[in-house]
Amino acid sequence: MSAPVVRLIRVGQDAPSELLDLSPVLTEAVAVSVGQGAAPPTVVIRRQRPYALLGPRDRRLPHLAAGIKVFQAAGLPVFERIGGGSAVILDEGCISFGVARPCDDFTFIQRNFEELTEGVRRALALLGLEARFGEAPGSFCPGPYDLMVDGRKVAGVAQAIRGGFALVSGMVLVSQDPVRVTELLNRFYAAAGAAPELVPDNVATLADLLGRTVGLAEVEDALVRGFAGVYDLVPASPSVDERQRAATLWRTRRIG
Amino acid sequence: MSLTTVTMPQLGESVVEGTIGAWLKAVGDRVEKYEPLVEVITDKVNTEIPSPVSGVVQEILVEAGATVKVGTPICVLAADEPAGAAETSAAVRDAAQARSQGAPGAGGEALPRGVYSPLVRRLAAEYAIDLRQVKGTGAGGRVTKRDVLAYVAEQGRQAAGHAAAPSPTAAGAAAAGAPAAAPAPALGLGAEATPALAEVAAAPAGPDEVVTPADPMRRAIAQRMAQSKQTIPHAWTMMEVDVTRLVALREGMKEEFRRREGVDLTYVPFFVKAVVESLKDFPLLNASWQDDRIVVKKRIHIGVAVGLEDGLVVPVIRDADRLSIAGLARSLADLVSRARAGKLTVDDVQGATITVNNTGAFGSVASYPIISPPQAAIITMEAIVRRPVVIGDAIGIRSMMNICLSFDHRVTDGLYAGRFLQSVKRRLEGFGPDTAVY
Fold this sequence. Notes:
The complex is a heterodimer of chains A (256) and B (438). With 256 residues, chain A is an alpha+beta fold. Chain A has a single domain (5-253), classed as Bira Bifunctional Protein, Domain 2 (BirA Bifunctional Protein, domain 2), CATH 3.30.930.10. Chain A has eight helices and twelve strands. Chain A has helices at residues 17-36, 64-73, 109-116, 118-126, 178-192, 206-210, 216-228, 240-253; strands at 5-11, 42-46, 51-54, 78-80, 88-90, 94-102, 132-134, 146-149, 152-162, 165-173, 232-236, 254-255. In chain A, the strands form two sheets. Chain A has an eight-stranded mixed beta sheet with strand order 7-8-9-10-6-2-1-11, with helices on both faces. A four-stranded mixed beta sheet of chain A has the order 5-3-4-12. The longest helix of chain A is centred in the N-terminal third of the chain and has 20 residues, at 17-36. The mean pLDDT of chain A is 93. In chain B, strands 9, 12, 15, 16, 17, 18 and 19 form a seven-stranded mixed beta sheet that branches. A four-stranded antiparallel beta sheet of chain B has the order 1-8-6-3, covered by helices on one side. Chain B has a four-stranded antiparallel beta sheet with strand order 5-4-2-7, with no helix packed on it. Chain B has helices at residues 86-98, 118-127, 145-159, 170-177, 193-202, 216-231, 244-261, 268-281, 325-340, 414-430; strands at 2-7, 17-23, 30-31, 36-41, 45-50, 55-60, 67-69, 73-79, 234-242, 287-290, 293-296, 302-304, 306-308, 311-313, 316-317, 354-357, 377-381, 385-391, 394-408. Residues 83-114 and 159-201 of chain B have low confidence and may be disordered. Chain B folds into three domains: 2-99, CATH 2.40.50.100; 118-221, no CATH class; 232-430, Chloramphenicol Acetyltransferase. In chain B, helix 2 (118-127) runs parallel beside helix 3 (145-159), helix 3 packs across helix 6 (216-231) and helix 8 (268-281) packs across helix 10 (414-430). With 438 residues, chain B is an alpha+beta fold. In chain B, 31% of the residues lie in helices and 23% in strands. At the A-B interface, helix 2, strand 9 and strand 12 of A face strand 4, strand 5 and helix 8 of B. Strand 9 of chain A pairs parallel with strand 5 (45-50) of chain B, so a sheet runs across the interface.
């Protein structure tokens, strides 16, 4: 049986500045097309400029504005995502991924997590790491479908089912410093009126786990090869509609 | 028709609770089987839940933002097809009645328990209407949210001249369902005003008087303003703001903005932006006083007063904190144009958490606005006036504007309100030619 044909959109090292600008909302813009039937299932692998990404529940923090100031003082714009989860930092020390396919059945949640992260698990295997689903207690944005290696979280994963699509998305921690990020997130939550007391102990980066310097290009390449083992990937660029939608989402998803 | 309860689904093997992210249908809305009904959030998932049946949303039992256990009833649907199990209806009824306790109706006296849902009671309080005047179309004649909103909308439509039939005479309208006067408050501030209003309506016209029947919109305004002044201890403060740089900014870009966006760039979106950003630091002005509790609103919905020839409407910019200045300008232009065309929907005019009023539009330089219950504050921007101002040891000509704030003194005090107004002032004075509007 042949592999499903899936569009591959990359925002890599040589991506145009405009696409890097839209990176925080690009995956959602693409997923909407998938849900509308205007595009086939799509994998997005992207870099980004540093930003903070809040989960839907974070919007209800009692002193959110004060928390946002913590991020802004650190030079981070703040966005809200459609998937579940809580606050994370995305920067040049991680690679983001997202896989969208048509879906309007919430009973597919577990299946979506399992199937749509298969490419990421294969990518980690190509790098020499065996990843399993699990939750890293005390880590930022914890959840039962994070990808763990030796009991430590190396990729955060979340899901949204809406508008006719399922979007499983997340970030692979390449070299992002968990101590620095956790400290910043703790300051955000403290200022915003919640104090989850996050700890970095159960978070690891690929560099930590492999004991060597790991470049973003190496991880991007592994992700492409990992997803290519599952799908028949067709390289593509976001359509004009998707770029326009992303531009609109950039304004509506940005906070502060 | 039968009632079907929708419960919080289990979104994953180990998931025991979920948060209502947003209702995608309102009470009274029709929903088709499998059509998205509600958005539910768990730890790592945000998903739309489809309707299990075709029908009409009868009642929402769990509001957005609340987290409940899996299996908890979250809404009731009046299904097209008969339900299979009688106990389903019983469970719905029990759940609804369990939530229908205690809150007084708009008339101030306790209404029979179990007759009105909390949502309906809250709406009645918000719009200051007597629920006994509202005809219920729900099961067994129950008054639904839709009935309340239809009642409010009908009043508004009649006032705006969009109703087919003219309004009846004042006496007739009062008899046919004008809201009851708000109860005399414990403070006693309105103890004389309420009977006075009634006397005016009842008194025969003298030889030197012309009696004009108040239309429904005028009566609604009268009711809400009287209720506000009788129940909310207003405090007032004013500051003057140097908006010279803002004027330069707007003058420099208004033509380009008009070309790009197709709407005028007025001063109002800048003012709204300054208010919204300040509310993030001073959330007690985005709150309401309810039964000896202060309820701070986490979302910022700005009511913008729009004067009409024959009245006043206050459409709402929802989640105004998510919008840029340009986005606010577009939202304002849309709401104002639809307000003046009489095309606002009920959803457009409900849920404001604070009100902004551009009283400067008609030349006012200071005003004392009345708070719209159950909000805690209303703020005005007055006319921008070029006048000499002492700057250091010199005198310069600056564009100056007063901003006025009325706030509920039960919720907060002058120091806090003053600091809020200072924040608005600072932000307005910070706008200048280098300000990004996108």
